Amino acid sequence: MSRVIVEYNPPLTIKSQKLIRDNITPSMISNDETSCQYEISMVADILLEHEHTNDVHMINNLILDGVDYIEF
Q1: Is residue 1 domain-resident?
Q2: Which of 12, 25, 31, 55 measures 20 to 30 Å from 40, CA to CA?
Q3: Tens place of pLDDT for every residue, the chain, 72 residues?
Q4: Overall number of domains in the chain
Q5: Does 42 map to a domain?
Q6: What is the pTM of this model?
Q7: Pairwise CA distance, residues 65 & 39, whole Å
Q8: Residue 66 sits in which domain range?
Q9: Which of 43, 57, 62 shows the shortest CA–CA distance to 5?
């Protein structure tokens, strides 16, 4: 049996959230289209590429905790 862990509303900067929305296709969009889920390793890659150091550190800690997706 496997589980998928989603971190809801992680404390990302607005700038990082925009970068993620603009560059990563969401894996899931809520029915009311108010939130999306993004695969966490893709998030780490895009934040690292654009040097969002504090947010990369937080995302890497979530990865170490076993989180698969973030949602906001």
Answers
A1: no
A2: 31
A3: 889 999 999 999 999 999 999 999 999 999 999 999 999 999 999 999 999 999 999 999 999 999 999 999
A4: 1
A5: yes
A6: 0.93
A7: 14
A8: 6-71
A9: 62
Structure tokens at 14: 């607005």
**What does the block give as tokens for 4?**
């998928």
Q: Is residue 65 situated within a structural domain?
A: yes
Residue 19, in any domain of the structure: yes
Tokens of 10: 């992680």
| DSSP code string of 8-68 | ES----HHHHHHHHHHS--SEE-TTSS-EEEEHHHHHHHHHHTT-HHHHHHHHHHHHTT--
Residue 27 Cα distances to 6, 38, 57, 64, 69, angstroms: 12, 6, 22, 20, 9
